[in-house]
Amino acid sequence: MLLTSRELALLSNVFKLLADRTLPEGDLRLEVGRLMPDLLHANYLGSCVWNGVQEKFAHRVALNMSAGTLGDYEHYFQYGDPLAHTLLARRGAGG
């Protein structure tokens, strides 16, 4: 995959943010999240953290998505989303 100089600069900024240990997790996810749609040529971004105790996704970070859409996912669709649970099973290196 070839990256343009702009995409390389965006990716570099993502890595700089990830290396910055001073940002709280929520702020870090939001700052990285602001770069990702541009890097991935996407219109929307949604990110949640799995809460194993409650067995649901929480702590959402989203860009260009309505509160209603996010609420629908959290209340109903997360439980029937086959991709999310498949990816959860593969967390970690070499997953």
Characterization of the model:
This protein is of the alpha+beta class and 95 residues long. It folds into two domains: 42 residues; 53 residues, no CATH class. The longest helix has 16 residues.
User: Which strand order do you get reading across the main beta sheet?
Assistant: 1-2
Helix content: 40-55%
Strand content: 15-25%
Structural class by sheet pairing and helices: alpha+beta
Report the sheet with the most strands, covering strand number, pairing sense and barrel closure.
Answer: 2 strands, antiparallel
H/E element string?
A: HHEEHH
Number of strands: 2
Write down the domain tally.
Answer: 2
- Uncertain runs are none
Number of helix segments? 4
Distance between the termini: 22 Å
Q: What would the principal axes of the Cα set say about the shape?
A: globular
- Tell me the Rg in angstroms: 15 Å
Estimate the mean pLDDT confidence. Answer: 87
The oligomeric state is single chain
Keywords:
51% helix; 95 residues; alpha+beta; two-stranded antiparallel sheet; 2 domains; 4 helices; 16% strand
Please give a quick description of this structure.
With 95 residues, the protein is an alpha+beta fold. It has helices at 5-19, 25-40, 67-75, 82-89, and strands spanning 45-51, 56-63.
Q: Could you outline the blueprint of secondary structure elements for this entry?
A:
Blueprint: H1 5-19, H2 25-40, E1 45-51, E2 56-63, H3 67-75, H4 82-89
Antiparallel strand pairs: 1-2
